[in-house]
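$ run holo --ligand "zinc ion" --emit tokens
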Amino acid sequence: MSFFEIELDLPSRDEERHWACSRKVRYGHLQTAMKSLVELMKKGRQDLEVYRCEYCEGWHIGHKPNLLVRGLIRGLRNLFG
Ligand SMILES: [Zn+2]
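-- output --
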């Protein structure tokens, strides 16, 4: 999608998130997603977090977690050091 298309036809927040869902890896369990996130963090990725998806009811790794999950991840990060 080009910058101009976004300007002309700005997707709603829901459409944007649904689109993000369909193109992301879905994890059926939080623990599985967390393991993948930890591996990514070991490789130097510090900008990613796990969040619950309201569309597929799975878990994704992305940049926009909800606040509850953000707090949970902060705790897990402490555990993993
Ligand atoms: Zn999803």
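-- notes --
The first strand starts at residue 49 and ends at 52.
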